[in-house]
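Entry type: protein chain
Record version: 2
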Amino acid sequence: VVLSDSLSVPSKFEVDLNEAESKNKAAKGFRVLFLRYSEGLNLTYEMFHDAGEYNGQQFHEFRKGRLRVYCVIDPDNGSVILLSHIQMKSTRKTQTSDLIEAYSTLQQYKDASSALELK
């Protein structure tokens, strides 16, 4: 997991994360979770697990308190693609609407990646 360096423009995800951190103490722990994951350290089920499937795509979630950050595992290289939204979960079960939003974000990412490859 790579967050942009201090010399570049922050990504939408980083802006969202900064905003969430200013409003919710639990959000501050996400940076630690991402760092642990990127260093290959194991995360418990309470920190990271399968969130569910939508339209044939398996989603995972980083968890901190009631907050969730959805992601997918790239089948080509095993890297994690963080999706640029943080959800406040109100029930134990992942809502289909959360997976639909994650799927939509993933499709936007894939479309942008395809456009860049064509240049």
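Comment: The CA atoms of residues 37 and 118 lie 31 Å apart.
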